[in-house]
Amino acid sequence: MRSPLPVARIRRALASRPRRVVAAVVVVVLVAAALVWAARPQRPDFRTESAVVTVRSGPAGDQPVDLDTTLYLPGDASARHRVPAVLLAHGFGGTKESVRSDAEDLVARGYAVLTWTARGFGRSGGEIHLDSPDYEVRDAQRLLDRLAARPDIRLDAAGDPRVGVVGGSYGGGLALLLAAQDRRVDAIVPMITWNDLSRAFLPESTGKAPTEGVFKKGWAGIFFGGGGNAGSGPAGLAGTGAAQPEGAPASAGAPSPQPGAGPGTGPGRAPAGAADPSCGRFAADVCAAYLRIATSGRADGAAVELLRRSSPAKVLDRIKAPTLLVQGEADTLFPLTEADANARGIAAAGTPVRVAWFTGGHDGGAGPTSDSDRVKFLTAQWLDHYVKGDGEAPGDSFTFSRIAGFDALDRGLVATGFRTADYPGVTGQGRREVTLSGPAQPVANPPNGNPAAISSVPFAGALGSLLDGVAGDIPGQHARFQSAPLADPVDVVGAPTVRIRAASATGEAVLFVKLYDVDPQGAATLPDGLVAPVRLTGLPRTVEAAQPVTVTLPAIVRRIEAGHRLRVVVATSDQAYATPAEPTVHTVALGDGPLVLPTVDASPIPTTATVWRWVLVGLLAAIAVGLVVVVLVARRRHRRQDSSVHPAYAGVPLAVRNLRKEYADGFVAVSDVDFEVHPGQVVGLLGPNGAGKTTTLRVLMGLTQPTAGEIYVFGHRLVPGSPVLSRIGALVEGPGFLPHLSGLENLRAYWRATGRPWADAHFDEALEIAGLGDSVHRRTKNYSHGMRQRLAIAQAMLGLPELLVLDEPTDGLDPPQIAEMRRVLQRYATDGRAVLVSSHLLAEVEQTCTHAVVVNKGRIVASGPVEEIVGESPSVLFEVSDPDAARTVLDRLAGVRVLPDGDGALVVDTNGTARSEVVAELVRAGIGVDRVVPRRRLEDAFLALVGENSRGSGDR
After folding, report:
1. Which residues, including other chains, have CB under 8 Å from residue 461's CB and lie 6 or more apart?
2. pLDDT of 729-740, one tens digit each?
């Protein structure tokens, strides 16, 4: 459609007001520039001091090591204005550069931030001892000493800096161990880290000791095998997900919960005396322990003790610094149970502790922006209160989040946060029991663990949930037990439990228990690729003699929708774990009792986006209410003005009087249209493209306002919102349906929207008209154009309106459907009803319509009965019951000749013989005569009226 304001008028307006326009443009530019400047993030005012410093650590505190450090200081930090400090530790395999952007965010909040490259990485010297209290932790203590000696750092006492410690993964473990070893630490925020390093790498889900655990060879191989080579660790522990580095921009002024960054930059070397060069810069005892476990697949007591020396589990009761524990739900390295154990141990000592779960982790990165922003806020709030001394105490409420869907703007994932007053642990506040079923099943342990099922791959997260068939759970190597479809949804928050029984000729089995969410179509999802490894010993040979054992499945946060099933899979292999090399067959069955799902009663956390969303909803609601008021007032005014009935047209379905439609740019689409449609008539509105037909129909349906003229429907003057519109059924400018609804549901939705009584609808007649059969129950997005057209015509006829207005009703229909439509329209124009049809198919108009209105260039050039417009003709078209018999009869009449181009009917040249005499002969012969029309076609008359080259006036 053309613009309602002509270009020439715009130019004249601009020419007449040049100064005003220029001034307006200047104002707009200045305002835009101010907004951009205000919204542009300002670089914080800070300075940095980088240095390689030598500290002394080791068991006796006398072994020197060089650490590569950078101190970030606020611009106003000085002896007169001392500032609190933060030790910011990087993830495994990272360097001080990994956390640069996080440091800049914290310094912008007024903290001095000390970052350093841990020993064994990058340009720092020494060997990797896995956060040993004698090495990495003492290194950090010496850095605290350096902060305490500075004149610009706030002190609690001589030698005691006001300091918090923040770190992810490797850095998170350091934060916990440092707080336990040094009382000078005032607050800590450990993220996605461990409680017991031996249990993290040797998990066992029935409660056995790590010496009986199942070796997590995938993560351990990356952690140890690549750690320290060339001065760097594995990128996967330094980054997350798709190698996203720690220190991605953190707008909330707190570190993002990511474990590290890419490889270090320094030229590392294997340490002297290392157990094996493949261990790179790992200390010899750590390397030797890894090699023993990796070779046998089992841990000895010495290896477990070494790993526990680097674990917070042994020293949680010594931590007095308020602790915010942030743990990722998408984490197959350090799952939620690690943070749960830390939280319980720290809280038992009376130390303030708060737990926050988020949707990221070692397998999921920082999670969606909405989720990482929440974690950044919690971190900044914690540090500001306990380190800086600002704000109220954050409290100990528990927060977690769940993926809610996709953002409508950028299609990124969105997480919804939830909050509850008390931390429920991984056991939840409530429980939902679900019954599983399935027989005892044999499962084969493959030789050397190959081929193995894939549940997760380091850095790739829940790959198993995207795989099916041989790549996921391998046939013959797993048993399935499944529930019935859930009657209502359940929000799982915590670690589910299930009881199983197992038997084996070897007396021992390593199994992997998984919980799948199965949708109604059968697609199964393994939440975050998490599995529960178990090692069962002392097993009988028959499953009937086996005792049930309780398996604690990984803690998850997931909504299981109604109609979904829960599936427990027990597999013998997993690519991420070490399994027995000897092939054997076990038998697995369900134990007594149901699958138990923990639940938490929590409330959603409002976010800035949520607040603005509600503001927008309120604004839109106000606009909608205003529009409704305007429409109601206008309709009431129209009703008051047009409640009378024009006596001349009271019984006329449609009277169009001197209709004119002129657009604002001067274009005249309809200049003078005047016609009537009477009961029992099927009137064809004809004209070339651009003649004004569609504009006339749009005015008729109230879709646009006429410039002049009147339209009456049964004597009521037609205006927008007029009640008389309910007596009109229409199909104008093509059908429009809701694609996710079926044809029948669309008809019902349309009728409900009209507000008319349900009893007034004629669904059976409408569906018969549509002729869609069973397809009426299919979604309309799968309809062909012809099917949608038929459904639209049925919709127009749904209330059996007294006036039916159709624009190109046969568009998209095949010949049999067109013939049926012709009969439908002819039958419809009975009992006082009338039909107005706009069509380009002149042959169909000639056979269907009783009357025609021919429009050309916005004016009527002819109107009246079709036979009058067609005129006299020497040949006549006969529609008869038996064409062959009729041809024999007519061949006997003198002078009468049957022409060959009848297209199935009889075209007869009467040669002066009266038509009535020809009809009488046919009737006397017992032949039924259905129709007699002049042979001169409507097309001939139409072309004579409008001209063969007419293109109309450019109707819109």
Report:
1. 241, 330, 332, 363, 364, 528, 529
2. 887 766 778 888
